[in-house]
């Protein structure tokens, strides 16, 4: 089966995007892993599917697969690429598009200068819904990892996030702690792990070890979760510039029950066609 695809990225968090409106796309976990492989396939952190609408008052349905083949609920950088993709491919000319995901409906709006602003929905702070095995506290939870206790924020942006405060993201043990926390038994569906360094109330630096993909150059939902966690800890203002290894996002949140806004770029790199049968052999 031959499929047309577009390679895109949001701040270096890269995607293979398939139009599943005009072509039939069926991908199993093995094919997804091969497509995402940077040597045997196209290479990406996530695969995105643009599908016809499934629920009333939406324009499209959005599916997301991590490089390890797992299907997930949300992807912020991918959402901005989604908006750019449907415009470039002539699938929509609307200023604002409404898109259903496995975790609810998000709204995407193209802005001047290649930016996309996304209403990411309200963060979920109830541990059972993240899911995180803990009794609810205001904003911080002790988590024992490898004999050491860390105080983490726990937030769902549709997908689960743990947020740790660090003095310096450059020296934070992102790979070691990230993989230990990703698979921690208190996160039954695994978790994305953010390492946040606070510069001042309006600026942070962030690195994210993503569930199912490892450390990426940027994570949109991770940036939202980090700002939510920092706001709840009374360390951040409602409008925060988040500097990730791949570039900057603007995240805005005024506290519960408000929705989180994310603004940042989305870039198409190239288009191609791939024969899936050759890929899995
Ligand atoms: N890169 C994404 C998040 C992708 C999904 C995540 N790895 C998960 O498993 O939840 C973003 O920009 O939000």
Present the secondary structure layout.
Elements: E1 2-10, E2 13-19, H1 29-36, E3 46-51, E4 60-66, E5 71-72, H2 76-88, E6 96-101, E7 104-110, E8 115-119, E9 141-145, E10 148-156, E11 160-165, H3 174-182, E12 192-200, E13 203-210, E14 214-216, H4 220-232, E15 239-244, E16 247-252, E17 261-265, E18 267-275, H5 276-280
Parallel strand pairs: 2-3, 4-6, 11-12, 13-15
Antiparallel strand pairs: 1-2, 1-18, 3-4, 4-5, 6-7, 7-8, 8-17, 9-10, 10-11, 12-13, 13-14, 15-16, 16-17
Can you offer a commentary on this structure?
The protein is 17% helix and 41% strand. Strand 10 (148-156) and strand 11 form a beta hairpin. The model has no long low-confidence stretch (mean pLDDT 97). The chain folds into two domains: 2-113 and 266-278, Diaminopimelate Epimerase, Chain A, domain 1 (Roll); 127-258, Roll (Diaminopimelate Epimerase, Chain A, domain 1). With 281 residues, it is of the alpha+beta class. It has an 18-stranded mixed β-sheet that branches. The structure holds ligand LBFN2T5F. Ligand LBFN2T5F binds next to strand 4, helix 2 and helix 4.
């Amino acid at each position: 089966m031959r499929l047309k695809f577009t390679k895109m990225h949001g701040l270096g968090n890269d995607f293979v995007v398939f139009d599943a409106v005009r072509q039939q796309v069926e991908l199993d976990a093995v094919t997804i892993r091969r497509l995402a492989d940077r040597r045997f396939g196209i290479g990406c952190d996530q695969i995105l599917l643009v599908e016809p609408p499934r629920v009333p008052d939406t324009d499209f349905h959005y599916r997301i697969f991590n490089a390890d083949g797992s299907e997930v609920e949300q992807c912020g950088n991918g959402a901005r690429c989604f908006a750019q993709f449907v415009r470039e491919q002539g699938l929509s000319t609307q200023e604002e598009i409404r898109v259903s995901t496995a975790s609810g409906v998000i709204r995407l709006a193209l802005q001047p200068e290649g930016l996309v602003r996304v209403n990411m929905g309200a963060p979920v702070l109830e541990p059972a819904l993240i899911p995180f095995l803990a009794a609810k506290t205001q904003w911080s939870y002790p988590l024992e990892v490898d004999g050491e206790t860390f105080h983490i924020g726990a937030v769902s942006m549709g997908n689960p996030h743990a947020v740790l405060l660090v003095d310096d993201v450059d020296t934070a043990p992102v790979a070691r702690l990230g993989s230990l926390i990703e698979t921690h038994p208190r996160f039954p569906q695994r978790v994305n792990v953010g390492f946040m360094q606070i510069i001042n109330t309006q600026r942070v630096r962030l690195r994210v070890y993503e569930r199912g993909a490892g450390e990426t150059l940027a994570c949109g939902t991770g940036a939202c979760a980090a700002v939510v966690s920092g706001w709840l800890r009374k360390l951040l203002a409602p409008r925060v510039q988040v500097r990730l290894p791949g570039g900057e996002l603007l995240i805005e949140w005024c506290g519960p029950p408000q929705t989180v806004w994310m603004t940042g770029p989305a870039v198409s790199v190239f288009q191609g066609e791939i024969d899936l049968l050759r890929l899995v052999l």
